[in-house]
Amino acid sequence: MADSISIEETNKIRVAIGLKPLPVPGAGPTFKPSKDTDSSSAEEEQGSTLESRQAQGYDNWKKLQDEADAKAKREAKNEAIKKARDAARKFAKLEGRGLGDADAETELDTKTWLIQQKKRQKKLEKEKARKLEQELAEREQVAEHTAEDLA
Questions:
Q1: Of 55, 56, 5, nearest to 26 (Cα)?
Q2: Which H or E run contains 115?
Q3: What is the pTM (predicted TM-score) of this model?
Q4: Digit-coded pLDDT (tens) for 2-27
Q5: Shortest CA distance to 27 belongs to which of 52, 49, 5?
C-alpha cells in the first residue's frame, strides 16, 4: 500500500508539472476529467423535463415575437418617413398663390374682376387672331411656290 501512496503522490506531482499520470495498479481505469462538467450535465438536463421544454418553447416564442415587433416598428417608421416625404413634396408643388387666395395689394370686387377678365379675353382673342393671320400668310407663301419653281 505504501507503493500505491507513493504512486498517487507521484501522479499529483506529474499532473502539477503537466505530465500524464502513471497508472495505479488495482485502481481500475482512470477517466479524463471533463473541463466543463456543469455544461454537460446542463445539456443532459436541457429538454429532459416537461417544465424545461415548456420554458425553452416560451423563450423561442418570445424571441420570435420580439423579432416580429421590431420588424413592425421598422416598417411603421419607414412608412411614417415616406408619408412625411410625400407631404413635403406635395406642399413644395403648391407654393405660391392659390386660386382662392386674394392678392394682399388688391382686393377685387366682382365688377372689377369681370372688367379684368373681359380685358384678358380681348387680349387672348387678339393673340389668337394674330397667330391665325401669321399662319395664313405662311400658307400663302407656300402656295405661291409651284412645281415650276422647283424644276
A1: 5
A2: helix 110-144
A3: 0.32
A4: 565 678 888 889 999 988 888 877 76
A5: 5
